[in-house]
Amino acid sequence: MGSAMYTGVTGLLAHQRRMDVxxxxxxxxxxTGFRSARVQFQDLFSxxxxxxxxxxxxxxxxxxxxxxxxxxxxxxxxxxxxxxLFSTGVASDLAIQGSGFFVVGMGNENFYTRDGTFSxxxxxxxxxxxxxxxxxxxxxxxxxxxxxxxxxxDLSVPVGSAAIVRATESASLAGNLxxxxxxxxxxxRTIRVYDSLGTPRDxxxxxxxxxxxxxxxxxxxxxxxxxxxxxxxxxNVPAGxxxxxxxxxxxxxxxxxxxNTGTGTxxxxxxxxxxxxxxxxxxxxxxxxxxxxxxxALNFNYVxxxxxxxxITVTSQDGFPRGTLQSFSIGGNGIISGTFSNxxxxxxxxxxLASFSNVGGLARRGDNMFAETTASGVPQVGRPQTxxxxxxxxxxxxxxxxxLGSQFSNMIVTQRGFQANARIISAADVMLQEAVNLVR
Length: 440
Prior knowledge:
The chain has 440 residues and is mainly beta. The protein is 14% helix and 42% strand. Strands 7, 8, 10, 11, 12, 13, 14, 26, 27, 28, 29, 30, 31 and 32 form a 14-stranded antiparallel β-sheet that branches. Strands 16, 17, 18, 19, 20, 21 and 22 form a 7-stranded antiparallel β-sheet that branches. α1 (2-27) packs antiparallel against α2. The longest helix is centred in the C-terminal third of the chain and has 34 residues, at 404-437. The two termini are 20 Å apart.
């Protein structure tokens, strides 16, 4: 009777713990990224009243006689199954589809979470606003490249403060130079380009009609061209010479081109880099200076020489003025792309995800955080969509994976188990009372 009462007590304690776990699951049914838990029972050691014996002769043997002494908690396991995803429209909200974890931390200590409710602080750092911990990943270099050997660091997305420029490297012209123009006739155009500081620079182009030339036995229509900036010649050709555009008899641009030697004789120059190159060696004193010489190439491939009015114009140039970071987005591979006010888009960094050999070995640390233990193994940190870590969705959060129907069923079963064990104690108490009454 005494052991029955203590056995009932172990049942009460075990079912109370199970009810605690069920209650915690239900309490966190709406907690972002929460992982539910379950309790597994196991019986305690047993008292052996009689050992078993094997068969001897005609004797068939007996089984051991044992009385169990109660129940205990075998394990409390965490369910790391995928939770439902829901859209928030907030660029810094992230969700993982797969088995990985976001890496957050402070100082040299890292923690791991499925809760992607992140935001930017006043310094542009990506943080977990509930704990103040930094979100960690890989930052891109100034050219927008995330190196394969990039080190894990605090992510930064300085919206409103980061700036980007792109110096002009090439400009394209298209249109017509009037083939019926008289020798010496000129056409002038101005093109706007940008130096390495994003400062606009207006380059003045002049095209001058030239006599037909004989280059290797073939006659070509020719136009001389020159470029100037602030009154200084910036055409990158040998001193005393002018750039030359040659056109076939059908008016199409002749790709080889040639250079004027100053004596009226032309020499063919196949794919000569300097023929269409502009080089600005100086931009004047005062203020910050761009990288010098400031050079870019002109593309004349779409210029024609037909008997029509001249309408040559600049169709494109690949430079941009200075722009500030206005917004960002995060792709499935965790790449953080920034959009700047000048229309440029550049990679800023990439999220990091961690995986574990045994996720069940992770220890809860509160605030939706997990910490590594010797049971979980060392975290394998890498990029999304690699190593089975899963992919990242921006503007989305992951809900709790608690199944309310299962939890309510477990709550009922647990309640009945607790009630039954309480009856054991009551019944054992009645039996003890009867034993006490024997002395009356």
